[in-house]
Amino acid sequence: MSSLRARLALSAYRWVGTAIYPLVGPYLSLRSAKGKEDPARRRERYGHASAPRPDGPLVWFHAASVGETVAVTPLIKEIRRRGIGVVLTTGTTTSARVAVERLGAGVVHQYVPLDLKPAVSRFLEYWQPDLAIIAESEIWPMTIVELGRRHIPQVLVNARLSDRTFARWKKRPSLADALFENLALVIAQSDVDADRFRTLGALPVMVSGNLKVDTDAPPHDPQALREYRQQIGSRRTWAAISTFEGEENAAGIVHCALKERSNLLTIVVPRHPERCDAVEATLTAKGLKVARRTRGDPLTPEVDILLGDTIGEMGLYLRLTEVAFVGRSLFAEGGQNPLEPAMLGCAVLSGGNVQNFRETYQMLAKNGSAKIVRDVEMLAKGVNYLLANDDMRRSMIDAGLESVQQMRGALTATLKGLEPYINPLIVKARLTPRAES
Question: What is the pTM of this model?
């Protein structure tokens, strides 16, 4: 049982949140100015609904950003296939667009309410979910407490805890216990994640594997792909994807080092497209000619860099190459998901800071489909070697495809774990039309 001190801390969090609730307008305005909020749907962040509640049982899914949204999309489709309504909340404009593109009108999308009691209470009172399913590592104290107070089962799926997050919670064991005791079930990505959740007081905990492995390959525009391939012709290509600050400059350095010997085209796809003006300035300062996807610039022989400054087109960019460096790993920390390049037939390179995807990289590296580079010089050598050695590149690509196949099965395991919570809702969904009639 959690300590009195922890419960007092949660109570204080609740009242402080209530007190600052009228003052969060400037915060949301700042986010809107940065393109991180949709001004037209700002009221949703206060818990106000902008769509009617579907009849019958309803599951609330929450996925913070694009990666989590993509990961739970197959699970949401399975829940919908069973006749159960779904409201999906996300926290970013990019994930909202991905949700609409991949799930359509059959799922209600809302922006997640602020983790303040008035907003959370208003959201729950309107939607009245029968079950809350939260993706990966979203731990919002007020939301968890309010769901627990209403006796709404809440399940973490594809759950993970980074080294930093786990260390932070371990310093507050009573507070962690007071929160995690509200969870009906944790379905973790790995044994390491499962042990961490158990340490923090979550029970029961099971392991499913990574739901991201069971997703479809990212979609693409076939016409755009044909046009780009025609423009590229016989040129060699490599991609630096999901890059963070400093990694685009590294890609430029690699391109300058290799362009003379290989007639190279480099594809750079920043994790945050709003940074692309600054990224273009950095690359052009090196004397490189940049073509941008949003401008429709053709890939003439003089173009050095294709700057992927769009959202939801990773499937297009990765289909233009067979070598991909995955960012947030060379200078930033945590890493990004390497599964999409692996499933689309790319040899994967990465920096060493991949703590958030440790198990995935271990599997890919063990099977020979991913290589870790220490610095920019090693990255340049790795790109050059893979472009020049067809057998090695093809071997890594084949190993990646095999690794992805071996890791599949998380969706089936997750659905199995959810059965005690989903099966009653299936029955309820079948009875709802009769009750209305």
Answer: 0.88
**Per-residue pLDDT reduced to its tens digit, 105-151:** 999 999 999 999 999 999 999 999 999 999 998 889 999 999 999 99
**Hey, which residues are catalytic here?**
68
Q: What is the CA radius of gyration of the chain?
A: 23
- Tokens 């909020």 identify what position? 37
User: Which residues are CB-contacts of 252 (< 8 A; sequence separation ≥ 6)?
Assistant: 266, 282, 283, 286, 288, 305
Question: Which residues have C-beta within 8 Å of that of residue 68, sequence separation ≥ 6?
Answer: 90, 95, 135, 136, 138, 158
Sorted by sequence, the CB contacts under 8 Å of residue 178 that are 6+ apart come out as 2, 3, 6, 7, 10
3-state helix, strand, coil in the chain (%, to 5): 55, 15, 30
**CATH 3.40.50.2000 in the chain, residue ranges:** 222-407
Average pLDDT over residues 61-75: 94
Kindly state which CATH superfamily the domain 222-407 is placed in: Glycogen Phosphorylase B; (3.40.50.2000)
Contact in structure between 91 and 112 (CB atoms under 8 Å): yes
What percentage of the chain reaches a pLDDT higher than 90? 80
